[in-house]
Amino acid sequence: MGNRKKVTIWGAGATGATMAQRLVEKNIADVVMVDIIEDMPQGKALDMDESAPILGFEATISGTNDPADSAGSDVVVVTSGIPRKPGMSREDLLNTNASIVRDVVGHAVKHSPNAVLIIFSNPMDVMCHVALQASGLPKERVIGQGGMLDTARYRTFIAEATGTSVRDVQAWVLGGHTEATMVPLTSNAMVGGVPLTKILPRDQVDALAQRARNGGAEIVALLKTGSAFYAPSAATIAMVEAIVLDEKRVLPCAAYLQGEFGISAVYVGVMATLGTGGIERILQPELSEQEQAGMLKAAEAVQELVGLIQ
Hints:
The chain is α/β, with parallel strands linked by helices. Helix content is 44%, strand content 22%. The chain has a six-stranded parallel sheet, sandwiched between helices. The protein has a three-stranded antiparallel sheet with strand order 7-10-11. Strands 12-13-14 form a three-stranded antiparallel sheet.
């Protein structure tokens, strides 16, 4: 093991396994995939491990069905849960996934009491509340992944529309991780330091924000079965990397607010500095009236769903 950090990814489906692959290839942490399906995480891990001589990474990757193998993790990513099936109400999905997340988080903190948790399971904003409660961890160490992905989509669309490199597009999506509650910021979106609203007409800017809101559904409609996992896994691993390497990166993620943006005791997507201890600081950009209203709407929507959990 040496001095490498350890990261556990709970759930070895398409998304969890792609996260594990992206992370082990970065060579910054040893990776463990935990899943309840027998032999499946072991098989995927062995397959990834056999790519090490070609790609040249020394980090280890292992798969297991035993939560005890996650012991001593610095970061635990929770992807567990079931997708919504035909005939299921949102509440059904909510309570099924809440009990799965509760169970996983219980195991995770029992074996890794000092870990930072990144919650990926859906509905993500609500599952953060479940994880915070189940873990007993401080709020800085229970973080939701949603904004990172939504922001990546938004930046992709802006780069395409303006004919510029994605690296020179600075734009953020705050608020909730659903189409109705996402808040793509247009007031401070920049391309090479120039406001986006100075480059494109307003209606085009609004259309890009709308496409970002609809980003997940757009992919589901094309795939017909299943949903996105390449960009979601990349988004999650950028957060893991910021924590493992103590990068102090300002990344959009779901955080438990206590007064920021006039919102309290609820998880909403904000811009936060991520380092070893998880969330180190929450930044509050100036928002337009419409954006601020969107933040409050997102908070209300999450609170409403939290109230439905049994």
